[in-house]
Design goal:
By secondary structure, the chain is α/β, with parallel strands linked by helices. The chain is built from four helices and four strands, in the order βαααβββα. The termini are far apart.
Length: about 150
């Protein structure tokens, strides 16, 4: 059975931790932390290549797409095509992330057909809340260093 990654729960835990860190920072420095985030960064493919993964980039019109997806250990889907990736596209033990757009309620992956996958991020409540929480957590690291005088 695939582990469903509860992005909302993880994000709630991170937010609570960050709120506590922010209170400690304000108490020790007298400065209330503020945050401005511009969402930008390297595409996932480049990040994986930097970690010596073999990466295949496809699109919805790629020939033999099902077979290509079926051979992958990590599947990152951001096609904007609801219910594109079905259970028979994914080999057992693969990790599947559905990067559905902000306004989407239905993801590109049919999560209910992923019971054989090692893990899957559902839509909604998968990667979105985790992304925001991780951005906040990474932003708090320099604040902690400032508070501790590092």
């Amino acid at each position: 059975m695939a582990k469903i990654i509860d992005g909302k729960a993880l994000a709630a835990e991170l937010r609570a931790s960050i709120a506590e860190e922010a209170k400690l920072f304000e108490a020790s420095s007298g400065v209330r932390p503020t945050l401005a985030v511009v969402l930008a960064g390297k595409p996932v493919a480049i990040l994986l290549l930097e970690r010596e993964c073999t990466v295949t980039v496809t699109h919805i019109l790629t020939r033999d797409l099902r077979q290509i997806v079926r051979s992958a250990d990590i599947i990152v889907v951001a096609a904007g095509s609801p219910a594109l990736v079905r259970g028979d596209w994914v080999k057992p033990s693969a990790v599947v992330t559905d990067e559905a757009g902000k306004a989407q309620i239905v993801g590109d992956v049919v999560t209910t057909e992923m019971e054989h996958a090692k893990a899957v991020t559902p839509v909604p409540a998968g990667l979105g809340p985790m992304t925001v929480a991780c951005l906040l957590a990474n932003t708090m690291a320099p604040a902690r260093a400032l508070r501790h005088g590092d």
